[in-house]
Design a protein that fits this description.
It holds the Pfam family Sigma54_AID. By secondary structure, this protein is an alpha+beta fold. It has 3 domains: 20-55 and 279-299 and 313-406, no CATH class; 130-269, Arc Repressor Mutant, subunit A, CATH 1.10.10.1330; 408-476, Arc Repressor Mutant, subunit A (Orthogonal Bundle). The protein contains 23 helices and 8 strands.
């Protein structure tokens, strides 16, 4: 079979995203921290970018860009692409569009950022770990090097709650010592601060704390901890009253003592640090309306600079210069587009969720991405990206932008109620319940029906209650 070469014309359609467009999309979904890091990296890599004080307008970028074109027009060679082509290919006007409305004017001192007077040292501090805290105490005690090695091995086998997750025989083998020696040092470690750390079971943890507090002289308390923690947790009190010949008041005293103990002594030294949120947008009430302010703190203001000599340069330098200037100009205008998109989305959210901003979470309405996208004439994917990892400070607290999008539940009068509003009502109802007679899920369904006219299933109420980290009515019930 002979092989031959043929030429064939074929017309196809492909959707190709330029690197500049990919960068603009990436900027939309960046958080403030990621955005600052990205800008700092671009400042290091692009010699035509520089940081300036103040807030340069987008027109200044175009003017600066035009000046660079004029200064280099005389020395531009035929090869490569010209600065005019770069500016033309950007199609900035079609890409940026116009704001739906300009933000309300307000003086800088009228709405001062809540973070202006907070230094970084007041927000972040080095936190001691459980291992460091225990080893610090051991080094201040009279332990030998061999004993410190065994204790360090014990501490190294603790989990995040402070429990020992290794057999004594394994520690003895690892430290080349006896199990009796490890047991002796474990006894001392368990009595360090926090008391009860390195325990192997919850019973052992509580018993160590009882011993240190001198409560171990009461045999009833010790036996309750050793053998009846499950009965206490499930509120099976009658068998305990008969066994120990107690009345409810006395048993309640024992329960108060047990509840004052810490079953997870190492949890306060957890390695997971809290997440500090800096809002991207502030929404302030003003004269019956709302003012939207973008938080540009710590985000550098960029402009194009012209530091290259005006003399003759090689074709490689020209090509490098053209690409870097185009990249810098696109970055500046993409950042401006990000600001405009964020403002539009928040402005639309305020319009749709005005009752929330006026009255609170109870009045949160159903909202989907399509509603915002149609209102601001953008694609749903753009709205989804700009609401990712973005937070807004409202009169009722700081919320992620995605919080305002929630599903709808139909009421009897034909209106729709947001799922987040239902969750807020469930939380409020449980907060006002009688601890001795808590509200069951069925009762919550009836109350929601009366309150907002929503016919909601019991399993849906249970799902919302679980999402709020609220236990069932049997576990919330107080027997005293």
């Amino acid at each position: 079979m002979a092989l031959e070469l043929k030429q064939q014309l074929k017309q196809t359609q492909q959707l190709l995203m330029s690197p500049q467009l990919q960068q603009a999309i990436k900027l939309l979904q960046m958080s403030r921290l990621e955005l600052v890091e990205h800008i700092q990296q671009e400042l290091l890599e692009n010699p035509f970018l520089e940081e300036v004080q103040g807030s340069p307008e987008l027109s200044d970028v175009d003017e600066n860009f035009s000046e660079l074109n004029e200064n280099r027009a005389s020395s531009e060679a035929d090869e490569g692409y010209s600065f005019e082509e770069i500016n033309k290919n950007g199609d900035w006007e079609d890409y940026l569009g116009e704001l739906s409305s300009a933000p309300k004017t307000s003086s800088a001192h009228e709405y001062e950022s809540i973070e202006d007077n907070n230094f970084i040292e007041t927000r972040y501090a080095e936190k001691s770990s459980l291992d460091d805290h225990l080893m610090w105490q051991l080094r201040l005690s009279s332990f030998t090097e061999e004993e410190l090695d065994i204790c360090e091995n014990i501490i190294g086998n603790l989990d995040s709650c402070g429990y020992l997750r290794a057999e004594l025989s394994e520690i003895a083998e690892a430290t080349r010592s006896s199990a009796e020696k490890v047991e002796e040092l474990l006894y001392k470690v368990q009595r360090l601060d926090p008391v009860g750390v390195a325990a192997r079971t919850p019973q052992e943890c509580l018993l160590v704390q009882v011993e240190v507090l001198k409560y171990d002289r009461d045999p009833v308390l010790v036996e309750l901890i050793k053998y009846h923690l499950t009965d206490l947790e499930t509120h099976r009190y009658k068998p305990l009253l008969r066994k120990f010949h107690l009345d409810m008041e006395t048993l309640k005293e024992y329960l108060d003592i047990i509840q004052s103990l810490d079953p997870m002594p190492g949890a306060s030294f957890g390695e997971s640090e809290p997440l500090y949120v800096s809002p991207d947008v502030y929404v302030f009430p003003s004269d019956g309306d709302f003012v939207i302010l973008l938080n540009d703190e710590d985000i550098p203001n960029l402009r194009l600079n012209d530091f290259l000599d005006k003399g003759n340069v090689s074709a490689e330098v020209k090509d490098f210069t053209n690409k870097k200037i185009a990249s810098a100009s696109w970055l500046i205008k993409s950042l401006e587009q990000r600001k405009r998109t964020l403002y539009k989305v928040v402005e639309s959210i305020v319009k749709f969720q005005r009752s929330f901003f006026e009255e609170g979470v109870d009045k949160l309405k159903p909202l989907i991405l399509k509603d915002i996208a149609e209102d601001i004439e953008m694609h749903e994917s753009s709205v989804s990206r700009i609401t990712t990892n973005k937070y807004v400070s409202t009169p009722h607290g700081v919320f992620e932008l995605k919080f305002f999008f929630n599903s709808a539940l139909s009421s009897d009068n034909g209106d729709s109620v947001g799922s987040e509003s239902v969750k807020a009502l469930i939380k409020k109802m449980i907060g006002k319940e009688d601890p001795k007679n808590p509200l069951a899920d069925e009762k919550l369904c009836e109350l929601l029906k009366q309150e907002i006219g929503v016919d909601i299933a019991r399993r849906t109420v249970a799902k919302y209650r679980t999402a709020l980290n609220i236990p069932s009515s049997s576990k919330r019930k107080q027997r005293f």
